[in-house]
Design a protein that fits this description.
mainly alpha; 0% strand; 30% helix
């Protein structure tokens, strides 16, 4: 048995990035099928999204903007093309991102299976 899931995990970084950016225009075209993305990405040519510089020019959608967008266009703010009730699962957030949360011990932290970037507020396992 190998240590890696598949050969894609051991690709050279440049090869991985090239492959990801080759798929990016199709991902953007599919996103633009949703009205809210089509409006936010108006004037963007999906075929031109082939580099980090092009990716950096895309507008940022912040989580804090979602409640107002969902209120204006319920229930998903125009970001979903499917009809309500047509999904196998629907995950929701009970709290806004700015709500205070009690600090809880992170399972796995004691066993060294977690990572925490220096800029992060949370530990991910």
């Amino acid at each position: 048995m190998t240590e890696h899931y598949d050969a894609l995990e051991t690709r050279a970084p440049a090869m991985r990035e090239a492959e990801l950016f080759s798929r990016m225009p199709d991902v953007l075209r599919k996103a633009m099928a949703a009205p809210a993305y089509a409006e936010r990405l108006q004037g963007i040519d999906p075929a031109g999204l082939t580099s980090r510089a092009a990716l950096a020019r895309l507008p940022v959608l912040r989580k804090a903007d979602l409640p107002a967008l969902q209120k204006a266009s319920p229930p998903f703010g125009g970001f979903v093309t499917g009809l309500p009730g047509s999904f196998g699962r629907l995950f929701t957030s009970l709290f806004r991102s700015s709500s205070p949360r009690q600090r809880m011990p992170t399972p796995g932290a004691a066993h060294g299976r977690c990572s925490r970037p220096a800029s992060a507020r949370a530990t991910w396992c």
